[in-house]
């Protein structure tokens, strides 16, 4: 097992690698004076001992930051179609442009892959800090990335982010508003097409959905889990509409699944909103381009990304940054929601 980072010094790394302390410093600052083989040996020893330069964050606060990191565990094809991340990244970039800083964006296949990637980025000084997204319950990234001193901002509810400075949306309140709106229209059979259960924000939304339905005297409704893609959103919608007691309203966890659901309703001859109401999440431009236009829980995703980037620069500068929520998503009713058809 690697020794705790705070007990290991540059002298320990130098001794284990068979070099001088100066060589370790040259290697981590990417300066000439050591061979590539020696540099890699020093990095390997530092990784094994769990060591990173203690002065990294402080020195970065005195220097310009050339890049920040963002790793996303999503398939490339899905990410290219996902409006949320496109808007979120554009918000980050708007802040980076002011500081002549770049975004190092990488798609990974697993959280374990992300851990190794973030460790290498920080060890090799490729980034001044990172944005961490898509938190899970008992997220495996927290201990290893916290142990190397990586400046980071978490995008997720504080209950998921292990004490990291975090920015989040109040998903529970937004879900409650969505359900109460549909019930006020007269809906009693409401379904939710959500993301993977392992994702923290999906679990928060699912719990809020069930709790609000129960508070209103209704059963828990139907939950279907997906991977956020349009294909899975379509499949989930088709399954719901083929049920013996199909819902009269469906809430989706993102816009692309809601658009796919609208297409399935048309394919099956189910009129929206006369027979079925649909409610999207995020309110990207897609919601205004469909026919009928999609009601949605709307929030400023671009501003969300910008706020995350500003907070990360404060963390890199060594400031004590409190976690904070962004504005709670709010309902924007459009043509896809209406009272349910009369029973009978």
Automatic annotation (TrEMBL):
Region (Disordered): 324-344
SMART domains: HTH_LACI
Pfam families for the chain: LacI, Peripla_BP_3
Top-level taxon in the UniProt lineage: Bacteria
UniProt keyword annotation of 4Fe-4S present: no
PROSITE patterns associated with the record: HTH_LACI_2
Keywords in alphabetical order: DNA-binding, Transcription, Transcription regulation
CDD domains referenced in this protein's UniProt entry, alphabetically: HTH_LacI (cd01392), PBP1_LacI_sugar_binding-like (cd06267)
Domain HTH lacI-type: 8-62
Keyword Cell membrane: no
Protein's recorded name: LacI family transcriptional regulator
Organism: Streptomyces pharetrae CZA14
Lineage, broadest ranks: Bacteria, Bacillati, Actinomycetota, Actinomycetes, Kitasatosporales
């Amino acid at each position: 097992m690697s020794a705790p980072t705070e007990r290991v010094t540059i002298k320990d790394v130098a001794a284990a690698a068979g070099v001088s302390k100066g060589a370790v410093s040259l290697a981590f600052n990417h300066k000439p004076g050591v061979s590539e083989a020696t540099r890699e040996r020093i990095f390997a020893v530092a990784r094994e001992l769990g060591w990173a330069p203690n002065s990294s964050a402080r020195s970065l606060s005195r220097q310009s930051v050339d890049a920040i990191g963002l790793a996303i565990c999503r398939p490339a094809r899905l990410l290219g179609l996902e409006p949320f991340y496109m808007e979120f990244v554009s918000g980050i970039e708007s802040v980076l442009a002011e500081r002549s800083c770049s975004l190092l964006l990488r798609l990974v296949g697993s959280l374990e892959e992300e851990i190794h990637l973030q460790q290498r980025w920080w060890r090799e000084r490729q980034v001044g800090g990172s944005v961490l997204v898509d938190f899970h319950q008992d997220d495996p990234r927290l201990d290893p990335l916290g142990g190397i001193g990586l400046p980071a901002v978490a995008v997720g509810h504080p209950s998921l982010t292990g004490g990291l400075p975090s920015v989040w949306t109040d998903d529970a309140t937004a879900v409650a508003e969505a359900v109460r709106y549909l019930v006020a229209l007269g809906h009693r059979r409401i379904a939710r097409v959500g993301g993977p259960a392992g994702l923290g924000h999906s679990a928060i939304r699912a719990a809020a959905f069930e709790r609000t339905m129960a508070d209103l005297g209704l059963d828990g409704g139907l939950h279907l889990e997906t991977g956020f893609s349009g294909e899975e959103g379509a499949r989930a919608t088709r399954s719901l509409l083929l049920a013996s007691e199909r819902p009269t309203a469906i809430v989706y966890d993102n816009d692309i699944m809601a658009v796919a659901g609208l297409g399935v309703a048309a394919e099956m001859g189910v009129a929206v909103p006369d027979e079925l109401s649909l409610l999207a999440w995020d309110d990207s431009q897609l919601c205004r381009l469909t026919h009928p236009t999609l009601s949605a829980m709307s929030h400023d995703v671009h501003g969300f990304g910008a706020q995350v980037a500003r907070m990360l620069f404060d963390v890199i500068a060594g400031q004590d940054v409190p976690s904070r929520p962004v504005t709670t998503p709010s309902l924007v009713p459009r043509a896809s929601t209406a009272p349910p058809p009369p029973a009978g």
